[in-house]
Amino acid sequence: MSTPLHGLPRALRLAAIGLVLATLAAGFAYAAGWIGSAALSPKRIIDTFEDQAGHFPGYRKNHAKGLCVSGYFLSNRQAESLSRARVFSQAQVPVIGRFAIGGANPHSADTSVPVRSLALQLSSDDGEVWRTGMNTPPVLAVSTPEAFYQQVLAMTPDPATGKPDPARMQAFFAAHPESAAFRQWAKDYKAPDSFANSSFNSINAFALVNKAGNRQYVRWSLMPETPFVALPGPVDDPQYLQHDLQQRLSQGPLRWNLRLTLAAAGDPVDDPSQPWPAERRTVDAGTLVINHVDPPEQGACRDLNFDPLILPSGIEPSADPILAARSAAYSESFNRRSREAAQLGARP
Question: 176 catalytic, yes or no?
């Protein structure tokens, strides 16, 4: 039986959400060269995560539990003036995706982890590929790799309880006032009862570049057409979200609207901890349609590295230091699980 997020004390709610978001943070930092200690090699950091969550050879080192989906993106051409990327003008773009929950344990109960993710690969007819990894929260708690590493340390489980120490976690947040927006989101967050009615956010900002070379910074979100229903009380089925998704797709496709939020002058485009004002202009760029699901850990997404810096012409990364480091960290995780899977003679 799993415990829903809203049943936890506030301090542990923050810990549960923050820990899974911080899972690869120190790896990001080292890979980008911001933390130079030899003790903080990517191997050492991932070893530490596996010491905490358990060693699961062949699985992703974060968002380990998930399942592959596929479908297509229907552009409405409303973003064509903002970006020359073909995905915004092509009528229908094939999509491979993966729904997952946060954390390194592929055997966690679906509803035991509050953070959910949706990773996508969109392949347009000009040969370009766009990969994006999105998560439940709209912002992160901190804005630098160094602070991320401190968050990892603050949220290390207490050996006596198996959970983060609330006092240490509260001290961390007190020392990082930039986490205010994240803490408010976590306080108000109610987990949906399905992947189908979950929204997903890019968190980091990117620049859209149009045919004239003009740049517009945006963050994007996928907003579900399926109505929100909160997760009920304790759930006995450890595969609750996966079974629910399979059942819903057996009845027909599921849809999300791709919403681009446009930055205005002065908005922090390089700081993932800071939200933009609610009145910022938005553009609905089209509809994601998911119409097929594969068995858990099977399908076309299984061997994809959803590196968020694999971008088509017309979409460019911001100078966000967290985003800049993710590619190397994803590579370390991907290479490790590939080696492990080869040694096992299979590829989970």
Answer: no
**Tokens representing residue 243 in the block:** 């079974």
DSSP 171-226: HHHHH-GGGHHHHHHHHH---BSSSTT--EE--S-EEEE-TT--EEEEEEEEEESS
Domain 5-344, CATH homologous superfamily name and number: Catalase core domain (2.40.180.10)
Catalytic residue among 6, 55, 63, 176: 63
Q: How many CB atoms lie within 10 A of CB 55?
A: 11
Read off the tokens for 260. Answer: 């681009």
Q: Is 330 annotated as a binding residue?
A: yes
Q: Tell me the one-letter amino acid at 195.
A: F
**What would the pLDDT profile of 80-110 be if each residue is shown by its tens digit?**
999 999 999 999 999 999 999 988 788 889 9
Distance (Å, whole) CA 125 – CA 129: 9
Please give the Cα distance from 96 to 100 (Å, whole number): 14
Report pLDDT digits (tens) over 155-197. Answer: 788 888 878 889 999 999 999 999 999 999 999 999 999 999 9
Are the beta carbons of 263 and 283 closer than 8 angstroms? no
